[in-house]
Amino acid sequence: MGLQDIRTRMDDAAEAAGRSPDVITLIAVSKVQPNERVEAVLQQGHRVFGENRVQEAAGKWPEFRTRYEGVALHLLGPLQSNKARQAMELFQAIHSLDRLKLARTLARLAQELGTCPELFIEVNTGEEPQKAGILPADTDDFVAECRALDLPVRGLMCIPPVEEEPSLHFALLAKMAARNGLDGLSMGMSGDFEQAIAQGATHVRVGSAIFGARDYG
Ligand SMILES: *Cc1c(COP(=O)(O)O)cnc(C)c1O
């Protein structure tokens, strides 16, 4: 495992799918990882990272950014409206746009700040009650509402149910993106990024397969 290994597997998966690896962004998910592990990946030249929490990211990335140029941060976890401003100042992309209230807040702040991160709409493809995300049946309307707010919607994002075949969820997400004219697909994690690439992923979010297991203790 490690960065190089994941890159090789991504290239192989892209080739097998007849896709160019250049259009697939690897987001190294650094949440909860010790700074030494993150620094090791920065030293290998990688610059695209994912975090789940605004607070945690704000605690570690400003310092890394003084020493490494060109870092792009992606917010993957749920975003509360009262943290939206801080998130917009810290992140280049937000993958968890999942409700109209948040869309309205982001639109207002985008006006004020004159800029907005790329946005991915999170879709609850498994229709799991405990999970965030727009239901598949509501997704087309929500995309239209976000566009009417002038938000830069880059694509759709999903986290398939753990017990189900992820490819079916990736295929569903790809279909919904296509019919809405969106080409960004944020899907695939350590255990299923190759399947996600086969279904058209443009952004894979890989944590433990790069950095090792997370220690929540
Ligand atoms: C933690 C997380 C990941 C990375 O998970 P791994 O299994 O460690 O690759 C990807 N996406 C989201 C939304 C996450 O919360």
Structure description:
It is a single chain. The chain is α/β, with parallel strands linked by helices and 217 residues long. 44% of the residues lie in helices and 16% in strands. It has helices at residues 3-16, 35-43, 54-67, 84-90, 100-113, 136-148, 166-179, 193-198, 208-211, and strands at 25-29, 48-51, 72-75, 93-97, 118-122, 153-157, 184-186, 203-206. Bound molecules: pyridoxal-5'-phosphate (PLP).
Quick gist of this model?
With 217 residues, the protein is an alpha/beta fold. It is built from 9 helices and 8 strands. It has one domain: TIM Barrel (Alpha-Beta Barrel), CATH 3.20.20.
Largest sheet: 8 strands, parallel
Estimated share of beta-strand residues: 15-25%
Strand order of the largest sheet: 7-6-5-4-3-2-1-8
The whole-angstrom Rg is 17 Å
N- and C-termini, Cα separation = 22 Å
Low-pLDDT parts are none
Please report the first level of CATH classification, the CATH class: Alpha Beta
Total domains = 1
Question: SSE order, as H and E?
Answer: HEHEHEHEHEHEHEHEH
Helical content stands at 40-55%
Throw out a few tags for this protein.
8-stranded parallel beta sheet, 217 residues, single chain, 9 helices, alpha/beta, binds pyridoxal-5'-phosphate, TIM Barrel, globular
Please describe the topology of this protein.
Elements: H1 3-16, E1 25-29, H2 35-43, E2 48-51, H3 54-67, E3 72-75, H4 84-90, E4 93-97, H5 100-113, E5 118-122, H6 136-148, E6 153-157, H7 166-179, E7 184-186, H8 193-198, E8 203-206, H9 208-211
Parallel strand pairs: 1-2, 1-8, 2-3, 3-4, 4-5, 5-6, 6-7
The site of pyridoxal-5'-phosphate has 13 residues, from β8 and α9.
